[in-house]
Design brief:
- With 419 residues, the chain is an alpha/beta fold.
- It is 33% helix and 19% strand.
- The strands form four sheets. The chain has an eight-stranded mixed β-sheet, with helices on one face. Strands 13-14-15 form a three-stranded antiparallel β-sheet, with no helix packed on it. It has a two-stranded antiparallel sheet with strand order 2-3.
- Helix 2 packs across helix 3, helix 3 packs across helix 5 and helix 5 packs across helix 6.
- The radius of gyration is 28 Å and the shape is elongated.
Length: 419
């Protein structure tokens, strides 16, 4: 090759290439294996999450599940900005915060995009995250774990030459890296003045015991619509991820899906993609013909079919545990199955319930007496006549009718044998 034919810039580029090749030849076997591992971890969120778990929870076995791989593919689409609005509903204690709120942002910072048209590769470490939970303390706990992962020897060995935290911007609730990418932790309702992000992750926006509080619900909806959504640096491509166990009809998931219903009524496409994975593939979750619940992986196009009665991670959630939760019907359907039950029911509202024959404990006013005569008395029996502890209860209700009013006279719920 005649170097005189090359421009000065081309000669410099050739020199850098030859130096890089010489450096590769001198790499030890250990360094080459480390490079191979690093590429695997960067290309697979599942692989990265499994490795990061050992740093975050040393000595604690990880019970990996098919649905973690499913979530990983959805998060990969978010990382590539191919999916910008994602809601994930999964049951409590199924790794949602660890995977999505703690490990995913750190994984994004390891990514590089190849350069185009002669431009050098770009690092995704310049991406910023705003992470919020219902309590500041919980949000900061997630933030501390993210920081601990980045500052671990494991991370520094693999990516420490690319990404490190700035010493003057390294706090529990906010830290920044050498690319000026930052991770900021706040509470739902907290101030975000002057804070922007490329990713917003809302992890359990509402405590379950606040779902009956109208002020708490209204405050959440207003904060999300008026504050959080305005903090995206580039609204055209930035990402919002909501991850939560359902707490009620009017939680953040319900609020966003209701807005999609409004869009559909206007013949507009929905904004949100919903991934809801119930703990059990029950009769309401499965297809009534095939008796399976199927999930299609969005990237690999794999199909996972859950037969009727299938439970996520059955070694962690054996029948005794699941059956105990099922006794709490509203909690079970809402938090574990992702199907919120109306707090007031569909036909009987709390404000319509009245009492008779007693005294109001607040006002001291006597309740009305029962009518002397009724138009009708109805006895309803839901029978399962086996007097065993494992049997279903026999329920007997006696209801009297007088005009538009209904009077519950007696209710029996017990294990009974046939007469």
């Amino acid at each position: 090759m005649n170097l005189d034919l090359l421009s000065e810039q081309e000669q410099d580029e050739l020199l850098l290439l030859l130096e890089g090749q010489a450096h590769d030849k001198t790499k030890t076997q250990e360094q080459r294996l480390l490079d191979k591992e690093r590429k695997t971890l960067e290309s697979s969120f599942s692989a990265f999450a499994k490795a990061a778990w050992e740093i975050l929870e040393p000595g604690v076995p990880l019970c990996w599940s098919w649905h973690y791989d499913l979530i990983a593919e959805y998060l990969t689409l978010c990382k590539d900005k191919k999916l910008q609005r994602l809601i994930i509903n999964i049951p409590p204690r199924t790794l949602k915060s660890t995977l999505i709120t703690i490990i995913f942002p750190v994984w994004v910072w390891t990514q590089t995009k190849p350069g185009h048209a002669g431009m050098p590769p770009t690092s995704a470490a310049g991406q910023s995250f705003v992470c919020a939970s219902y309590a500041q303390l919980l949000s900061e706990e997630h933030s501390v774990k993210r920081r601990r992962l980045i500052e671990s020897a494991w991370f520094r060995t693999r990516w420490g030459d690319r990404v490190w935290l700035q010493r003057d911007q390294n706090q529990k609730s906010k830290f920044q890296n050498n690319f000026n990418g930052q991770m900021f932790a706040t509470s739902v309702g907290g101030t975000l003045t002057g804070i922007g992000g490329n990713f917003a992750i809302i992890d359990d926006a509402l405590k379950p015991d606040e779902i009956a509080s109208e002020p708490a619900i209204t405050s959440l909806h207003n904060w999300f619509s008026n504050t959080l959504r305005s903090r995206l640096n580039n609204p055209a491509e930035d990402v919002i991820i909501i991850v939560e166990q359902r707490s009620g009809e009017f939680d953040l998931t319900g609020y966003c899906l209701d807005r999609d219903v409004t869009l559909a009524a206007q013949k507009l496409p929905p904004e949100w993609t919903l991934l809801c994975i119930p703990l059990e593939a029950d009769a309401e979750a499965v297809d009534c013909t095939a008796l399976t619940q199927t999930f299609t992986f969005p990237i690999s196009k794999k199909v996972h079919a859950r037969p009727l009665g299938d439970v996520l991670q059955p070694t962690r959630f054996p029948p005794a545990v699941v059956n105990a939760w099922k006794m709490l019907r509203i909690v079970w359907s809402t938090q574990y199955q992702g199907r919120p039950s109306p707090l007031e029911g569909n036909m009987v509202r709390i404000k319509d319930v009245r009492y008779y024959g007693g005294k109001d404990p607040v006002t001291g006013v006597d309740d009305p007496d029962l009518p002397d005569k009724f138009d009708m008395v109805v006895v309803s029996v839901d029978a399962a006549f086996k007097d065993e502890e494992t049997s279903d209860f026999v329920c007997v209700g006696t209801v009297a009718v007088k005009g538009p009013n209904r009077y519950v006279l007696d209710v029996v719920t017990a294990h009974l044998d046939s007469p």
